[in-house]
């Protein structure tokens, strides 16, 4: 059997990187020649988790087809978030927790999506269903993903199933989830070594609506949001470039306060006012505060999809 | 909690009808107010299975939104195969074994697809995962679906997982699968009470390609294929009407010999020659024999998708 590449989305977050590693491991135990790879730069948060549990970052790839005919997607399904040459390979599995869109196959496949907060929660089930024990170090990675996606168990995306999985995985990994999690989030919120261009690309996702409208939503976590926003003019210049290059109708830059769980958004593009109106706020100097909003997937994407479709 | 409608595809086959019944039952056991409904006429084969295990056919619906805000799709995902007002309701779950296409949601959902021969095989797992026993009569329905989708365990879509599920379900249902299965297939292959229009609509599925091409593939099972083809002129007249009404580039009418496991196809529409060429056959009087071809999903749709895209 030839090699199968396993990867999460572009601009990978901790769930995308660790899900690729954790699921490739499971598939190897089940006899598949699976290799975890990544489609982008590893964030400081993810680097912290990888180092803490003794892993190297997966290998970066730009294209899949030159080295494999089959791939497995984790933590995403939308084509524009995936590898550029996705059309040239066969998707044999998807493990995900997002909405389904811009996704199509010629053949039946294994597709497992559940409306939970993190891919790792589904992977924890798949280990059980296949009778494979989660190794201690991989349990640490999977726990890191749940902490990351739930902002330490506080996001509205965090479900009872995520809670149960996090408890089981913390037990196996032998860590105190609260203590370890805060350290990991702080490592991720240290943005001091990032350029403006990196900050707006670090965790950015593009969405295409049926009417042809393309938008991009980038999110960073911060301990001191005001400090980040001091560079607003520089962000605007960099974002305007992206808007022009990609033909976007909206770029939303979301800076999330990991202590207070609010977000400041910087909205640029011709749909900016409509986007703000969708959240019942007005833009002031192109920014607005979204109180209690921390989840792009649950609190931002559905609102914009409804408002801009 | 308000009612959730559970249904298979239009022109329902035995898997679509019985999966709706079997999954709605499981969801009710788990506390959901789920009701199985259907989007089309019950076939003779399905009627035989329902009667044998003591079920009434589910209620027919034309639209979902007037009575429910949430739905569960079984045995399909493509929009054009589903209820007409699908865009007006929320799809909260999909349980399926087909390719994924023309499917999109605004929100995360539970999506469970596996590359197996029958939805019932996946449902059998879901009963186990949820710790619910399959009742005897529902086991009979689920077994009927596997027999139907696999043409009594002979289709290339039939996997090891389907075989294991069929054995377990036959045991619970207390029937001899081979004997019961042949009777059920014969009941389905009795086409004597059907009009020409009914025969070409009975198990017809429409597919839309990215380039805008629309095709329809209808399949009937028969014991005596030649007898069915005696009415070729009448079929052609009826199919030409459908092609004109729906703007199809191809209508493929597949008559499958359930004893010898070959199919005769009648190909009409401007793409007919290209379709035949995709199978390395030439049309003679607009028909061709496809030796060993019994599965629309595995042996016909992928070939046409590749050739006509």
Describe the model.
Two copies of one chain form a homodimer. With 309 residues, the first copy, chain A, is of the alpha/beta class. The longest helix of chain A has 16 residues, at 14-29. The first copy, chain A, folds into two domains: 4-189, inorganic pyrophosphatase (n-terminal core) (Alpha-Beta Complex); 196-308, DHHA2 domain (Diaminopimelate Epimerase, Chain A, domain 1), CATH 3.10.310. The first copy, chain A, is 40% helix and 19% strand. In chain A, the strands form two sheets. Chain A has a six-stranded parallel β-sheet with strand order 3-2-1-4-5-6. Chain A binds chain B through residues 97-115, 129, 210, 297-298, 301-302, 305-306, and chain B through 97-115, 129, 210, 297-298, 301-302, 305-306.
Class computed from helices, strands and strand pairing of chain A? alpha/beta
Protein chain pair with the most extensive contact, residues per chain: A-B, 27 and 27 residues
Largest sheet of chain A: 6 strands, parallel
**% residues in beta strands of chain A:** 15-25%
Could you give the count of β-strands of chain A? Answer: 11
For the largest sheet of chain A, list the strands in their spatial order. 3-2-1-4-5-6
* CATH fold title of the largest domain in chain A: inorganic pyrophosphatase (n-terminal core)
Shape of chain A: globular
First-last Cα distance of chain A? 43 Å
Name the quaternary structure.
Answer: homodimer
Question: Over all CA atoms, what is the radius of gyration of chain A?
Answer: 19 Å
Main location (chains A, B): cytoplasm
EC number (chains A, B): 3.6.1.1
GO cellular component, one term (chains A, B): cytoplasm
Binding site for Mn(2+) 1 (chains A, B): 9, 13, 75
